[in-house]
Amino acid sequence: MRFMTTPDHAAETPAESTGVAAQDWDRASADPQYRAAVVDLLGALAYGELAAFERLAEDAKLAPTLADKAALAKMASAEFHHFERLRDRLAAIGAEPTESMQPFVAALDGFHRQTAPSDWLEGLVKAYVGDSIASDFYREVAARLDRDTRALVLAVLDDTGHAGFAIEKVRAAIDADPRVGGRLALWARRLMGEALSQSQRVVAERDALSTMLVGGVADGFDLAEVGRMFSRITEAHTKRMAALGLAA
Amino acid sequence: MRFMTTPDHAAETPAESTGVAAQDWDRASADPQYRAAVVDLLGALAYGELAAFERLAEDAKLAPTLADKAALAKMASAEFHHFERLRDRLAAIGAEPTESMQPFVAALDGFHRQTAPSDWLEGLVKAYVGDSIASDFYREVAARLDRDTRALVLAVLDDTGHAGFAIEKVRAAIDADPRVGGRLALWARRLMGEALSQSQRVVAERDALSTMLVGGVADGFDLAEVGRMFSRITEAHTKRMAALGLAA
Q1: Chain A residues contacting B, CB < 8 Å?
Q2: Is residue A3 part of a domain?
Q3: CA–CA separation, B55 vs B78, rounded Å?
Q4: What is the ipTM of this complex?
Q5: Residue A173 forms part of a structural domain
Q6: pLDDT tens, B114-162?
Q7: Nearest-angstrom CA–CA distance, B104 and B107
Q8: Which of A33-37, A144-148, A185-189, B19-23 has the lowest mean pLDDT?
Q9: What's the structural domain count of chain B?
Q10: Which residues form the domain of B203?
């Protein structure tokens, strides 16, 4: 169950499939820069899933009940299966998975280190925020990908949304004690700020990936369009937080 | 791949299926004491898998490489799926899963607290020892169960053995530095000692489960037979450790 998701599903089925989006992997990957960008993207997503697995499993220790622990463990396990699919795809296209993930370890580990939840509710908000932002990003980026890579990214996306249960728990906690809302609102802003700052670090360091995002090898996206993508993701996040009772 | 396993597979297909072993769940569970024993057993196994998930996921943080981290995460995820099957079975037979697991939380958490690995190799040895002892125990206990419960226990058992990769890593580390073997041998003995001590605690506290193990409601096992079961499991453990280069 998803509580609130990006309303615009256009990215999943591009109205006009031109350029890379109309091609399959074999054809699109003939361009070495596009190939490098996809290896970067899959490497970043794969390590993102592996790191998410690790952190969710760790947060499961904060669970107040066995049922809550099992719910978080289930989310962690789902992330691990996403990791497997992305890693297998990397291997299938001839990229070494570990090498492909390595460039993104510092940024993702940095994000998680800076945002270690101090209690169960912070862990839930982080799981929900992380799951939602990941879904938004997958959906946005899907439109810029060849058919085969897009199918994989959307398949992994389809299987997210395990964080739905987090919403009920967070709402109940805020209902019981409204002051909790203020604290968690600050926390959610810190999560988003840290995510954006680590993303910028990655974009600055990975040429092929950034070039794909700004349209150098894809369907004519420009830098302003990337800015708008980040805006849309931030806006969707803000709306979700408001609906959750976590307005500023 | 399993490195060395209990050679005696007789327990999987009892030569003479009499008593409970010849019955299905509907018939066997008409005996309230047998029913309580199975709920205990499934509760203990379910929480064992959930706790194993949590610990393996935590140990994954000690992994020296991304491939090693992924391997441990895979084992953790497999444990989680075992948990799901056992929990679903508890629900299917009308037992509340959380309630059924609760009596075993203290013993299992105690075991893991007492045996937190201090490095990657200790984590691997623990994963291997834990996986092997669990397999041996599942196999032993299967013979005392009705057909339906036995099928579940053997299905979960079939899916273990993910710790095989641990063996290669441990052997390589001992080859590189034989002193490592001495330290890990002590560690393996401590693991087994702690496992036995927590098991005894459980056996002392859970009447229905213990009664089933000593044959009060099952196929005529006596206390000496339970002692022999523990002996067989310990002996198999010792042989595995010796084969791994971890003799005393």
Answers
A1: 47, 50, 53-54, 57-58, 60-61, 65-67, 69-70, 73-74, 76-77, 80-81, 83-84, 87, 97-98, 101-102, 105
A2: no
A3: 13
A4: 0.70
A5: yes
A6: 999 999 999 999 988 888 888 888 888 888 899 999 999 998 887 666 6
A7: 6
A8: B19-23
A9: 1
A10: 31-243
